[in-house]
Structure prediction request, 202 residues.
Amino acid sequence: MQDRNWSEFVAACSACTRCELAATRRNVVVWRGAVVAPLLIVGEGPGASEDEQGLPFVGRSGELLDTALTAQGLDPSTYHICNIVKCRPPGNRQPTPAEAEACRPWLRRQLQYAGSRVILLLGATALRYFTGETVGITKVRGIWRESRGYWIMPSYHPAYLLRDRRQREPFWQDLTAVRAKLEELGGIPPLPTGEAPDAAAF
Ligand code: URA
Ligand code: SF4
Prediction:
């Protein structure tokens, strides 16, 4: 039966056995941040820390992501973070097409609850499974896709920024564009006069 509210949705996700990842997960990782939020952030899938805590992006990647969001003046009331798949792929492998497909109805429903108009896709896997595009992320990051009223921004995965510090600059640019789009659409208020996102803090 279709869930009638957010807590029913979370409960339904938590009981899901639609794909084989159900067999090895510890927790189903649904979201963190605000339920209703102007910005939806989509990663690939839970890692070990996420599986353990039942929350997305709480390991080293998440720490870096949070640092960037905070430096942009984006607090947790402005974003809803989730992943392409809600259960950890063993050994942190990429989710298979079948797993992403099985989990897609949950993600679609989740986006309805969040009501976000701006979507930040973290990494090539999120881009591929969210939009069907198989292009290299380096080629397309920073370029908006507009689809059915949604503004979609592909960018790097924070794990990549951990491996290569130089990629923080383009990621910061993309996040700056996301912030500007949120302001433009009225999802967040502009920063007070004289204040600016703090690039040095990232
Ligand atoms: N990497 C992801 O793609 N998602 C998480 O939740 C954590 C790390
Ligand atoms: Fe269900 Fe998604 Fe977990 Fe697969 S990854 S069991 S589809 S919640």
User: Anything to note?
Assistant: The pocket of uracil (ligand 1) is lined by residues 43-47, 50, 56-57, 59, 61-62, 83 (CB under 6 Å). The chain is about 40% helix and 15% strand. The longest strand covers residues 150-155. Helices lie at 6-14, 48-53, 60-71, 97-114, 124-131, 137-140, 158-163, 168-184.
